[in-house]
Amino acid sequence: MKAYDLLAKNPEHADFAYRATQRLSVRSGDVSVQRDAAEKIAERAREDPNAAAQLAYLNLLIGTDIEGNAAAAKALVEKYLDRLSYRVTLALAYLRRHDPGLAVAQFKQEGAPPIDWQKAPLGWRAVYAAALLGSEQPDAAREIIDTIALDKLTPEERALIEQK
């Protein structure tokens, strides 16, 4: 991490360094480091919807600026319905707003491609399972939770499904 911090000081290599920092912090489960790197990436790539979505997801995961990040996620979903990562982010926003019904709806949008949950990242499965739990669908939620290696989730993602 220190090497990437030093590399980030060189403008030519900053993007590479921030993305590498973000990847490493995913492995450690440290959302604050991941979020800081995502914020720097989003600042440097203002037109990149993936950078904006990642930052919104991490902000929502830690409960920061729920309304602003929910609006950003909703705008991304409206523009890119086919991107599951954006719908997961919006679902997380609805969970943070205590509306699990609308969270579940993000995974059943008409016109969106089908979801193969076996191939989806574990954190996204946790968001979906939390939405199902909140919508009083414990059996469906348990099916998803059973596919998740809980020790691979961040503490914030794990809390989504453990608090239920």
Report on this structure.
The chain is mainly α. It contains ten helices and no strands.
How would the blueprint of this fold be written?
Layout: H1 2-8, H2 14-28, H3 31-44, H4 49-62, H5 66-79, H6 84-96, H7 100-105, H8 122-134, H9 138-145, H10 155-162
Helix pairs in contact: 1-2, 2-3, 3-4, 4-5, 4-6, 5-6, 6-8, 8-9, 8-10
Fill in the keyword field for this structure:
164 residues, mainly alpha, globular
Mean pLDDT: 88
Quaternary structure type:
single chain
How much helical structure, as a percent, in the residues? 55-70%
Largest sheet: none
Structural class: mainly alpha
Q: Which H/E pattern describes the elements?
A: HHHHHHHHHH
Q: Please provide the count of β strands.
A: 0
| Broad shape | globular
Total DSSP helices:
10
Terminal CA distance reads 35 Å
Rg computed from alpha carbons, rounded to a whole number of angstroms = 16 Å
Strand content: under 5%
Low-confidence stretches: none
